Amino acid sequence: MKHFLPLLCLAVSLHAGAENPPVSAPPDTATPSAQVQQFTLDNGLQVLVLPDRRAPTAVQMLWVRTGAMDEVDGRSGLAHMLEHMLFKGSKALPPGAFSRRVAALGGQENAFTSRDYTGYYQQVPASRLPDVMQLEAERFAHNQWPDEEFAKELEVVKEERRMRTEDSPRAMLMEQLYATMFSAAPYRRPIVGWMSDLDSMHPDDARSFYRDWYVPNNAALVVAGDVDPLQVKAWAQQYYGPMAARTLPERKPRTEPPQLGIKRISVKQPAEQAYVALAWKVPALRQVTDMEAQDKDALALLVLSAVLDGYDGARLERHLVQTRLADSAGSGADVFGRGPAVFLLMGAPAKGQTSAALEAGLRGEIERIAREGVDAAELQRVKTQWQASQVYARDSVMGQAQSLGHNWVVGLPVDADVQLLQQVQGITSADVQSVARRYFGDDNLTVATLVPQPRAQAANTSAPSSTRPSTQSAKEEK
């Protein structure tokens, strides 16, 4: 787990009613064509266009600012379920037709759901871009399907939960970790949904969620590749412009109350190896210009995570894996999102070692930095790798489009990747040492430990799994 990746997901936020000039990255971090142009349609749909003429291909991504965090108790999994149902038909497209038509155009397509957003994408020859724009606009505006299609797809989603979560000990551990860590924040619910909520889900639940959130003033269209921005704008107006804007439901804050002490859970699952995950609540990064104290701390926490686990031979590998305390160890600073932020340490104890020993070892690495700081050479290596990651990000048209859409969702500006690269140069060893001292006490900590159980015993208590039906819908959940 190498954690420069979150910075590759930084890009653009558009403001309603504005049409802005292109903003380009400096020459050392972008190709000359890497200029994002922003438009806002009359119905509020944001349009981001990034020309990249190195290959005759184009990517269209439609980002909807709704995800699992917009669900309510008793209806978890709706955002993910609706992602599946977008492939099941519209007024002009029978079930399965969307995917068949994209394939006939020589394209690839899929979708994904997270706590913060839902996204749909197609990559096609650039000459076929207007065809997929028309297709995506049709299903976005006119999604509809019979109840029987919903019932069939719901069984697919249930099997997806069994395969990806219930049959995966570490996934079950992380699900329980988030459910324990948060009491009010909506991140406590799993993206795929609780099985009991899936069992009680009705077709009209999904239709209601679609009517509430799938509106142009809650979405962004991202197009990258061998395209002309003004032509893309014209197509966007033609295909997406006729959709009517609607008032969105009120989003309640659902603020997480202060934690009053350490939370600790054991998760018993059939597994060969123990695992331990430690999660601290930390500040989120909300803006990259005129940073407030919590934004600067969030950036320093990203650097701290990179020092621990951001490159081959980083501290967790050297001090825990190579010394045979752990078979694996990782770190992550999840500070980008619409909800609360989390700093994670996790790992599997080596043979002959205990979860308690590994937990102490993981915490010991933070404590070492809190005492000693980070030396100049180590910090410079992190910054150099960070800068290189920005260059590598430009190799993929899909990656560039994903960065733009992701950062529209979380409200960052168009040049956030460049701004953060500049901001990180100012992070000092003292900054990293300071956050290591201030954010890793017990009162913000939740610990989840996987306790392996014999597989035969689990087989007697687990529900039988079924053969997963085939589906044309997207299967990626983040």
Could you characterize the architecture of this molecule?
This protein is of the alpha+beta class and 478 residues long. The chain folds into two domains: 5-253, 2-Layer Sandwich (Cytochrome Bc1 Complex, Chain A, domain 1), CATH 3.30.830.10; 263-461, 2-Layer Sandwich (Cytochrome Bc1 Complex, Chain A, domain 1). It has helices spanning 78-85, 97-104, 129-142, 147-166, 169-181, 195-199, 203-213, 229-239, 293-309, 315-321, 355-372, 376-393, 397-410, 416-424, 429-438, 455-461, and strands at 23-24, 35-40, 46-51, 57-64, 108-113, 118-125, 219-225, 263-270, 275-282, 326-334, 341-349, 445-453, 476-477. Strand 5 (108-113) and strand 6 form a beta hairpin. Helix 1 crosses helix 7 (203-213) and helix 9 crosses helix 15 (429-438). The chain is globular. The model is unreliable at 1-33 and 458-478 (pLDDT under 50).
Domains (count): 2
- Name of the CATH class of the largest domain: Alpha Beta
Helix fraction, binned, reads: 25-40%
What's the rounded overall pLDDT mean? Answer: 89
Q: Which topology of the largest domain does CATH recognise? A: Cytochrome Bc1 Complex, Chain A, domain 1
Derived from helix and strand composition plus strand pairing, the structural class reads alpha+beta
- Mind telling me the C-alpha Rg? 23 Å
- Spans of 5+ residues with little confidence (pLDDT < 50)? 1-33, 458-478
Per CATH, the architecture of the largest domain is 2-Layer Sandwich
Task: Name the overall outline.
Answer: globular
Family: Belongs to the peptidase M16 family.
InterPro entries: Metalloenz_LuxS/M16, MPP/UQCRC_Complex, Pept_M16_N, Pept_M16_Zn_BS, Peptidase_M16_C
Domain Peptidase M16 N-terminal: 52-192
Signal peptide: 1-18
